[in-house]
């Protein structure tokens, strides 16, 4: 059964002026339930991630500043959200949802987190609406519990996974692959194991050809026993922040390529949703929902 981490707190942590980007977290499960792609049985609400698990990835002092709401104003501005206890709870539930998803993926092949993909959070900083790095936390959890020995992180959000790259820069068990807009945030990039920088206005054909030439080789060389996928839909031409020019069909083919490869090799796959900032919320929700529909087609 397809298992999906979702909690109402995903959609409601912020003051009014910040809420539009969060609407998708409410609308995605509503749409999937409405059309019959999933039922309530597919959804689970994660608990909060423990401090021990968080600080296996993030600096203890940084975590305490987040937990106690004492992060300096400059660092809060870098994150882009005003800090609150509810926002911190949201982050630690997202992290636990990704960890739980790993267990479900091992049993079922794939699992999702409606939120997550907080790849701009480094070991001791938050940035770009990301406070804690859910997939990095989950990868270290797998190592520390002897569940996985080799992890591949496939980050196809339009923005480089700079926090993930920094966290794992000296970790040979993790291969970080980020394909992103060259001229997009973050403007100071970290070094992933493999970065592919795309020029503005890259469209379906070029994007998919590069991915088709890259992914199978990565899997063959790295031989991961677990894969994390960040499936941001800010690669769409309609995205206000993206600068690339993919269609929803191109985005769908991208997802199918990643999911089919993992399924064909029997490698468990955890998917976090990442970014999406199109002006029309329908474009964001439809593109994200396609990822779940493809998973149902391939796995169930």
Automatic annotation (TrEMBL):
Pfam families according to UniProt: Hist_deacetyl
GO MF entries: histone deacetylase activity; hydrolase activity
Record protein name field: Histone deacetylase
Keyword NADP: no
One GO biological process term: epigenetic regulation of gene expression
Chain ranges of the Histone deacetylase domain: 20-289
Keywords per UniProt: Hydrolase
InterPro entries: HDAC_classIV, HDACs, His_deacetylse_dom, His_deacetylse_dom_sf, Ureohydrolase_dom_sf
Keyword Magnesium: no
Organism annotation: Mucilaginibacter limnophilus
Family per similarity comment: Belongs to the histone deacetylase family.
Coiled coil: none
